[in-house]
Write a structure and sequence with these properties.
The complex is a heterodimer of chains A (about 170) and B (about 625).
Chain A (H helix, E strand, L loop, with lengths): L2 H4 L2 H6 L8 H12 L4 H11 L3 H10 L11 E6 L2 H5 L2 H11 L6 E2 L5 E6 L11 E3 L3 E3 L4 H10 L2 H16 L1
Parallel strand pairs in A: 1-3
Antiparallel strand pairs in A: 1-4, 2-3, 4-5
Chain B lengths: L6 H14 L5 E5 L2 H5 L2 H14 L7 E5 L11 E4 L3 E3 L7 H9 L10 E2 L6 E2 L6 H4 L17 H6 L4 H9 L2 H11 L11 H9 L7 E6 L8 H8 L1 H15 L3 E6 L4 H16 L15 E6 L9 H8 L23 E5 H13 L1 H5 L9 E8 L5 E6 L4 H8 L9 E6 L5 E4 L9 H6 L8 E6 L4 H15 L5 H18 L5 H17 L3 H5 L2 H9 L1 H10 L13 E3 L9 H5 L5 E2 L7 E2 L9 H5 L5 E3 L1
Parallel strand pairs in B: 1-2, 7-8, 7-10, 8-9, 11-15
Antiparallel strand pairs in B: 1-3, 3-4, 5-6, 11-12, 13-14, 13-15, 16-19, 17-18
Helix pairs in contact in B: 1-7, 3-4, 7-11, 7-14, 8-9, 8-11, 10-11, 10-12, 11-14, 18-19, 19-20, 20-22
The chains are: A alpha+beta (about 170), B alpha/beta (about 625).
């Protein structure tokens, strides 16, 4: 575990009172910071809240939004709500997985993408939908649109974006 | 922001805001999650820059509002004061809209709603059939106010119910009014709210808590999200009135983390209410002190169940507990707690303002008021619909929903989320009320309404819900944990063409067993999708079993893709998209599908212009 990573946990923990009720909000904050829950962070949380590590682990594995393994730079949430399901979401999911050469939802080997399914993000009117990085909702998806969607967030796109921002900063 | 010290000051503020009301044009753009995904932010940006370009920033207002409900046609907007309704707006339309607003208000014809039946363009929102039959007492203000500005809410009469309650009502009278109104829990089970409140009052234990359940987990439902995004103060006002009536010390709003915009708007609204003295110490000089805490869920469907929700707020895993004791006896941290749904809380100010009798006059004998549905699936007008209880499914689907797309036949309506059931097209004249739906094997639920057409396979639907519930079962009690797995396995078998007729008996038996013996509401209702499809669509199950055929052509193992060589024009579009190189044939000559290689993904079907791809 790289030391630099875990450094952010202490200041984050300092914002909270040592109460059991703060366990889930703290885990959410850690997850937001690292995109997953590093083991060392769980130990620190357990110590601070005086909640046994087993219970911290129990909570961390019970709720869907936590991950104990590192996640990709971009998280694609494919909605499998009822409306999306009847309008063909499973096929869109299959296509995404096939294009990324993944056997099932999870993280791609280059850590670029994490594909997960979500049961309804409440955009049923635009079904089928997928949401990327919690903010960009892509409506009315079809298999033909999947290629373009993935291209928008692949490594090349990230590099181009970084280059753009760097040149912007120079100006 | 001004801090109010008495109810009179709130009224003064409202009168002041009303007096400031000008005839200045205002473009209110829906910026709910749906319209945002359709590009509402771009529309807002280009409207702003268009106005700036012409130096009109101070002549025309732009408002970014919550969900207007008509998600299908988004982004939508209303131009005030003429109340012109535009739909399907794109950023390139900004110029035309600003032109129209500044030059004599001649509406932009192409952006007006076009009635598909008559082809006539409709000018106002209330004349669009989708809206005309609704009764929007909870959602009516969504299109009028900026959810991030408390003054907008006060201007439309917000917090006047709280002022009334504090000055004209005793605590008991508030509880009595809620009871008399006939309001029932809008979260699903439909327990009378007033009775629940009375039960809390019977206990002398302090402190007491109230909770707003905004863990809207049902797939295909987004009413609560839209209300929290579009009018968060209406829920906050309901909670403050509830706190007054129930002498609660604090409230918790438990909201899904999957709804980032709702979380943001609620946070802003709570902060503004605190600054205005509507939350905190000595609210409006009444001596009452009360605060609201926002808690984010972490992605567990079972946390919509009240005892699991309480465990989750306490920082534990969201596992339910047996009831009794009910939360009103022993809830959050062992103290008496009232938990109500978002819409239930938002109904409270309406009841106080308009009176219990007025509220009770809407709806049917046992189901009062309005109900909000998210009308989705195979329907023309997808969106949020608020209707009086008792309206028939036919009116919902055909008058408001505009019927089924592409001239297809209606097959079933799934109501109540995973706990609900499928109602067949033959029962379309069923009125929507708690009892009628339960009797039909479904339930009101929180208001998800998914319309299914002839291309939907009911075995697949049952399988879909079982998969969902198996994943979301918390695993605490055996019948739900194991039962949902077994049901899913049997359904998988049937949809793969490997089922037997004994499987149907097994589904039925296991279903009833899970219903009778599970610990919480999730398990007790989990078999509903299976039992209701078995009840109304047994034929379809039988066809899967005996003929090894899926009539709706959905179940992958039972279908074959083929190209009709007489129709195929050899354009190669399908060859390009096929992921498994299963399509053979030269360009400009008819293609064929090699079935052994075919993944049945349907990509070819999607791209084929002449419709030469057939599914058997």
């Amino acid at each position: 575990m790289p030391q630099v990573e875990i450094d952010k946990v202490e200041p984050l923990l300092d914002q909270y009172e040592a109460q059991r009720t703060n366990l889930i909000p703290i885990l959410q904050d850690v997850q937001d910071t690292y995109r997953y829950l590093p083991q060392e962070a769980l130990r620190k949380i357990s110590k601070k809240l005086r909640v046994p590590l087993t219970e911290v682990y129990q909570v961390a594995t019970f709720y869907r939004c936590f991950s104990l393994v590192p996640r990709g730079r971009h998280v694609i949430q494919v909605c499998l709500g009822t409306a999306c399901h009847v309008r063909g979401a499973p096929r869109v999911l299959d296509r995404i997985l096939r294009d990324l050469k993944m056997a099932g939802p999870g993280t791609s080997s280059d850590l670029q993408f994490t594909v997960e399914t979500v049961r309804c993000i409440g955009c049923c009117g635009l079904a089928p939908v997928a949401r990327v990085d919690n903010t960009n909702t892509h409506p009315h998806l079809t298999q033909t649109k999947v290629g373009g969607l993935l291209k928008k967030y692949d490594q090349k796109a990230d590099e181009a974006k970084a280059a753009r921002e760097a040149s912007h900063a120079k100006i | 922001m001004q801090r109010f010290r008495s109810p009179a000051e709130v009224k003064e503020m409202r009168l002041c805001l009303e007096a400031l009301e000008t005839t200045r044009p205002c473009i209110s753009v829906c910026a709910g999650s749906g319209c945002k995904a359709s590009g509402a932010q771009n529309v807002l940006d280009s409207l702003h820059s268009e106005l700036k370009k012409r130096g009109l920033e101070h002549t025309v207002d732009i408002k970014s509002t919550g969900c207007h409900g008509f998600c299908e046609k988004g982004p939508v907007m209303i131009v005030w004061p003429e109340k012109v309704f535009y739909n399907g707006v794109s950023q390139s339309d900004a110029k035309d809209i600003v032109n129209s607003v500044t030059n004599g208000h001649k509406p932009v014809e192409k952006l007006l709603y076009k009635d598909p039946a008559t082809g006539v363009r409709v000018l106002h929102e209330h004349d669009v059939p989708f809206y005309a039959r609704q009764k929007r007492i909870l959602f009516g203000n969504n299109g009028k106010l900026d959810p991030k500005d408390i003054r907008d809410y006060i201007k439309v009469g917000g917090y006047s119910a709280l002022c009334r309650a504090l000055t004209e009502f005793s605590r008991e009278q508030v509880v009595e009014s809620v009871k008399k109104s006939g309001l029932r829990g809008r979260g699903g089970a439909g327990f009378p709210t007033g009775v629940k409140w009375e039960a809390l009052c019977a206990s002398k234990t302090k402190p007491r808590y109230i909770v707003c359940n905004a863990d809207e987990g049902d797939p295909g439902a987004f009413m609560d999200r839209s209300l929290l995004e579009g009018n968060p103060h209406s829920v906050i006002e309901g909670l403050i009135i509830g706190a007054y009536a129930l002498e609660a010390n604090a409230a918790y709003i438990y909201v899904r983390a999957e709804y980032p915009l709702a979380v943001e708007h609620l946070g802003v609204a709570i902060q503004q209410a605190q600054q205005c003295g509507l939350l905190g110490e000595n609210i409006l000089g009444s001596g009452m002190s009360f605060n609201i805490h926002l808690v984010q869920g972490a992605g567990a469907f079972v946390c919509g169940e009240e005892t699991a929700l309480i465990a989750s707020i306490e920082g534990k895993v969201g596992e339910p507990h047996p009831r009794p004791p009910y939360p009103v006896q022993k809830g959050l941290w062992g103290k008496p707690t009232v938990i109500n749904n978002v819409k239930t809380w938002a109904s409270v100010p309406v009841i106080i303002n308009k009176g219990a009798d007025w509220y009770a006059s809407i709806g049917t004998e046992r189901s009062k008021g309005t109900m909000v549905f998210s009308l989705v699936g195979k329907i023309n007008n997808t969106g949020l619909v608020e209707v009086p209880m008792g309206i028939t499914l036919r009116e919902m689907i055909y008058t408001i929903g505009g019927g089924i797309p592409k001239g297809k036949q209606l097959k079933a309506i799934q109501i109540g989320g995973p706990s609900g059931g499928c109602i067949p097209a033959s029962m379309i004249d069923l009125p929507i009320d708690y009892e009628a739906l339960t009797q039909a094997g479904s339930m009101m639920g929180s208001g998800g309404m998914v319309v299914m057409d002839e291309d939907t396979c009911m075995v697949d639907v049952a399988r879909y819900f079982m998969e969902f519930l198996e994943e979301e079962s918390c695993g605490k009690c055996f019948p739900c944990r194991e039962g949902t797995q077994r049901l899913k396995e049997i359904l998988n078998r049937i949809s793969a063409g490997k089922g037997t007729e004994e499987d149907l008996e097994l589904l039925d038996d296991a279903g009833w067993m899970i219903k009778e013996t599970s610990l919480c509401g999730l398990g007790q209702t989990a078999p509903n999708p299976v039992l209701s499809t078995l009840r109304y669509f047994r034929d379809e199950y039988i066809t899967h079993i005996r003929e090894k055929r899926c009539p709706a052509k959905v179940c992958k193992e039972l279908i074959v893709y083929e190209i009709d060589e007489t129709i195929c024009d050899g354009c190669h579009a399908c060859v390009r998209v096929c992921a498994s190189e299963a399509i053979l044939g030269e360009k400009d000559k008819a293609h064929q599908i090699e079935s052994a290689k075919c993944l049945k993904c349907g990509a070819c079907l999607e791209v084929c212009q002449p419709k030469a791809v057939l599914v058997h």
